[in-house]
Amino acid sequence: MADLTGTIAGTVVDAATGQGIPRCDVSARGGITRGAETDGRGVYQIPGLPVGSYTVEAAALGYASQSTADVAVQLGRSVTCDFTLQPKP
Description:
mainly beta; Immunoglobulin-like; 4-stranded mixed sheet; 4-stranded antiparallel sheet; 0% helix
């Protein structure tokens, strides 16, 4: 049976330093909701998403959350969705 899914992947960085933000929660909401956590370099991957349009949100303690709407997942492909989060005062 063919895999009818795609992947959203990217990085989450600190706007002030440009460094990756580890342990940042990233979620993709569309027909389903799936999530991932960034690694020590701020890299994440959300595989197994059915083809369609998603709103992707990144949230980390000490930062203002950010979201991107209409991220299109295509069959068998990986789409990049990067975030630059602003530190909260």
